[in-house]
Amino acid sequence: QVQLVESGGGLVQPGGSLRLSCAASGFTLRYYAIGWFRQVPGKEREGVSCTSSSDGNTYYQDSLQGRFTISRDNAKNTVYLQMNSLKPEDTAVYYCAAASIYCSGRADEYDYWGQGTQVTVSS
């Protein structure tokens, strides 16, 4: 059974850090582009970052200004999103997703999704 499971979310103060994990089972994650998306109520899911399967390239939403870093550990079949200098506007449910072809900012181009993990940035 193909499954993606996110973890690592929680409540953090502004300026703090969190590391989200996306663990895959039922398929080999290194053959897929893995993206992180986030969504707040009433808004569309937006792309945050992506790591390519083929060339190791990584992509980030421009507004993040270098605060987030995506990485993958193929031996553990897991992708991470390190989030630093968190701001209240980073509050959202964060999802990871797998795409069989390439990184994309479009949610409808991903094949598999996790259930999401809540990140709340508040003092």
Quick tags:
globular; 123 residues; single chain; 0% helix; 11 strands; seven-stranded mixed sheet; mainly beta; four-stranded antiparallel sheet
Percent in helix: under 10%
Termini separation: 40 Å
Counted beta strands: 11
Percent of residues in beta strands? Answer: over 45%
Order of helices and strands: EEEEEEEEEEE
CA gyration radius, whole angstroms: 13 Å
Shape annotation: globular
State mean pLDDT (0 to 100 scale): 95
Unreliable residue stretches: none
Reported for the largest beta sheet, the result is: 7 strands, mixed
What class, by secondary structure content? Answer: mainly beta
Number of helices: 0
Write up what this structure looks like.
This protein is mainly beta. The protein has no helices and eleven strands. It has strands spanning 3-7, 10-12, 18-25, 33-39, 46-51, 58-60, 68-73, 78-83, 92-99, 112-113, 117-121. The strands form two sheets. Strands 2, 4, 5, 6, 9, 10 and 11 form a seven-stranded mixed β-sheet that branches. A four-stranded antiparallel β-sheet has the order 1-3-8-7, with no helix packed on it. It is globular and about 40 Å long.
